[in-house]
Write a structure and sequence with these properties.
The protein has a single domain, classed as Rossmann fold (3-Layer(aba) Sandwich), CATH 3.40.50. The protein has 5 helices and 6 strands; from the N terminus they run αβαββαβαββα. The termini are far apart.
Length: 172
């Protein structure tokens, strides 16, 4: 129990270190690749997200989704890529190979589609090498470059707002 608290503290320090050294340069090119981080307890329709980005003109192989699950044993393997608390070690060390690959990919945009204030979700968002990070309000504001005030249950509102602002920002 005590070691668990120390592990969380070391990972929180890792997140703070990443956010303090964050590069604020955002390229103005159009979106060609997108990474999406989802919390399975809040939203579970990964296909709807893939279809949305396909409708925006992004090719499906360039849309990568990774899902955070609380307990892998209760999870049906519906998603190709998922991660849980046990995939993280001390000081931000990541044990999951697919998660490492996801984080090392330089996406044009990363969408954090979650409202949960989970350390693991924040760590994945902070460690991602994505150029432009989009998220929902209610989570640490330092994680994202662009924040939408939408609930995860309102996916249609999220789609409309994101499309509107990506058009305004000349990203699509």
């Amino acid at each position: 129990m005590i070691l668990h608290a120390f592990k969380e503290k070391s990972n929180q320090k890792f997140i703070n270190k990443l956010l303090n050294s964050k590069n604020a340069v955002i390229r103005s090119k159009k979106l060609e690749s997108v990474g999406v981080v989802i919390d399975a307890s809040e939203f579970s329709d990964a296909e709807a997200i893939k279809n949305f980005f396909h409708d925006l003109g992004i090719q499906l192989p360039k849309v990568k989704i990774i899902v955070f699950v609380e307990d892998e044993k209760k999870t049906e393997r519906l998603w190709g890529n998922y991660f849980s608390k046990k995939d993280f070690g001390w000081r931000g060390h990541i044990k999951h190979a697919e998660l490492k690959t996801f984080l090392d990919t330089e996406f044009d945009a990363l969408v954090g589609f979650f409202k949960k204030d989970a350390l693991e979700l924040k760590m994945v968002t902070a460690a991602s090498k994505a150029n432009f990070k989009i998220g929902l309000s209610g989570v640490d504001d330092r994680l994202f470059d662009f924040i939408l005030d939408v609930n995860t249950q309102d996916f249609d509102v999220f789609k409309a707002e994101l499309k509107k602002y990506l058009t305004i920002l000349n990203k699509i």
